[in-house]
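Researcher: Batch entry, complex prediction.
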Amino acid sequence: MIRGLAGALAGYAVGAALVAAIRALTGVDPLAAEPLVVAGFPFALIGWLLGVGVWQAWAREWVGLDARPAAPPGWRRYFAYSTDHKVIGVQYLVTFTVIFLLAGLSALLLRVELAAPGQAILPPATYNQVMSLHGILMIAVAVSVIIAGFGNYLVPLLIGAEDMAFPRLNALSYWLIPPVALLLLTSTVLGGWDSGWTGYAPLSERNRVGQIFFNLSFILVGLSSIIGGLNFLVTIIRLRAPGMTWGRLPIFVWGIFLTSLMSAVFTQSVAVAMLLTLLDRVFGTGFFAAARGGSPLLYENLFWFYSHPAVYVMIIPGWVLALEVLPHFARRALFAYRWAVGGLAGVVALSGVVWIHHMFTSGVPFVFLPVFLATTELISIPTGVIFLSALGTLWLGRLWLRTPMLFAIAVFFNFLIGGITGIFLADVPTDVQLQDTYFVVAHFHYTIVGGEIFGLFAGIYYWFPKITGRMYDERLGQLHFWWMFIAFNLTFFPMFGLGLAGMNRRIADYDAALANTNLFVSIASFALGASFLVFLWNVIVSWTRGPMAQANPWRARTLEWQTSSPPPLENFPVPPTVVAGPYEYGTGRAHAVLGGAAGGDD
Amino acid sequence: MRTNEGAARGPATSVRRHTLAFVVAWLAATALAFWIVSGTEFNPPGGSAEAAIIDEAFRFLALLAVPVFTFVLVGLAYSVVVFRRSGPPGDDPRPLPEPRGVALGWIVVTSALAIFVIVNPGLTGMAALGWFEDRRPDLVVRVEGQQWSWNITYDGYGVTVPKATELVLPRDRRVRFIVTSKDVIHSLWIPAFRVKIDAVPGIETTADATPNRLGSFDADPLYRLQCAELCGTGHARMTARVRVVEQAEFERQMASLRAEAGR
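Model: Structure tokens for the complex:
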């Protein structure tokens, strides 16, 4: 990592010097900050990647030398460049869990400020910066944590493969993430940016220099997401074990497959929006500047064309993680498996034609309103199928309510509230009033935190013994669940009321009539924050000193549990052959056998 | 197929028993929730003809959501309470066959609900708001946003108030706001009227509201013109007071504003 930083600095110096030289030759101020940063950035990025391990483990081949992949032993491998999907999965999970907690702390700062009307600790400009930072950090976590963390660790295991299709690309997509943290940190030091995670132009073209770090880091997260998406698509299409037909794929793998499709198709659009904003700022182009013939609404269209599918990039992994957990703890097959896959596909298909529901009050031509009202409401149909699958699996099951199961069930309670309130936001007449209020804040926290992040914790507890080889403390796990579940609902449910009472979002101050509810929400948010101390304690103690886990403590059928905990390099002692569906409890048939004894049917 | 008649009948009766118990619990929860929802005032008192339509749409959706919400909630709760097992799983029971037609029936019902809310209160609400026809306004007010204040022009009165602290409107007149921005995107929002439209540099956007209740910011903080789109440091405080008066008083206000501007 030290070498990576050195590489980044060297790269930056090259890029910045190049631009300064060109600008000096053409007679403009050679030391203007923004052009230097923007032009130095790609060079710094290349320097970082080469320094951090790409050169040693990969790029040496380009000049005819032997690649020398480093493989430090033990825990040190998690801090080094590695192409092992399990190491990369853990790197993603730990990185994003840390970012999640930091972004949560920034939310607590906001809640301190909002605990009472008037100004407490954050002046309005600082409030907007902290709010923007909270937003983008959480978005980065939500877009990546399950798909990149658990996706990387588990997809090869679940389909019976040795690794991802493109291990080097996989490492590359991870090592694009630390520069994002570095960029946003630099931005904060320079005074941050105040245009939220949406970065609407032209505000983002007129504010301080911190904005460009936001745009650059958004492009990087997007790049990482596209690369990761392509890698999953190829892996799942090409590397399934013999007998692992599409109809036998665990639902989690289906979810990652469909999510990757969205990442690969839609992300370009937001990267373009970010890039054009930078061009407007640095080179004076006028894509989004009305005075120069540009269109601010163009930015919103490009932005939401990705960012609405992006919410499904966040939530589908949460749903399928919960759906993956349910059958193993209900001891029966996933209900309506094929319909659930169809439901996921339906959501993906509709996700590309609903983005204008973010813009009902933006001044888009009227004709779009009824059309996007209709497409948006239609999404509730495939979403409903996911609920059918969950309810049907629980119904008449034998529920073993361990921590992962509790989190998985809570996903459907929370998302029920998030989904139903979404109907109010999709119906144009009600949205006119609710748009940009705390009703929206409550709605998306219910869907993304209540849906995806609860799913994330279901996954963390479910696969903890597999990943670490040790068992977590069940009592602390259940304490964490109930504490987080109750505090989460106490924090976010009253926000629906705040929105209805006329509190708009992204404001540093509000009307005194709303003081009591806001104080309540602030107190509850601290209780929510404190619940993660239980989680951290449990994880740290269990990972270092917990009892050793068995290979299959849940008596689950899927492939990751048919190998040791943690699995060896390249996962299985002998390649598995899949002979039945993943959830056929009580039939006496195995899902897979190690080795080709039973013969594949492909 | 089954070898033992009794074993086959056993699970079937218990399925019927659970189903019946679930339906009873669902109906009870639905009745209770209907009672709560119909007694809840979700929105604060409105101040325009549009507010009545929008609040009615909200109330209708809330009532429609009740049986859906309770179905899933009772389904989850019933399963957790009734089907939980204390210890780790023993031998897994033989899987029950998936009942035919459940998924299809579910999709038919949810599709009907989704299409229903698209039409009502979606399209019908937009029609009631007069958005599908070309209604003529009684008064045109031009509003220009800038960081961080509003410039208000009353069309036909020759009155422009830069950095306005107050917006005065006559009662029972259909007001058309023609909105734009000088710098970044803002959004015109008057919570009491349930009207919201973005102020976008370079284009004009429009929204109509018909105030039907006398009121002022001092009596009701929802009578305010507030920026609803993040626009920089002063966003939270980018507000102006709104006052709704009778037509005669409105004419007097315009005259005095004109006189002030002339001085």
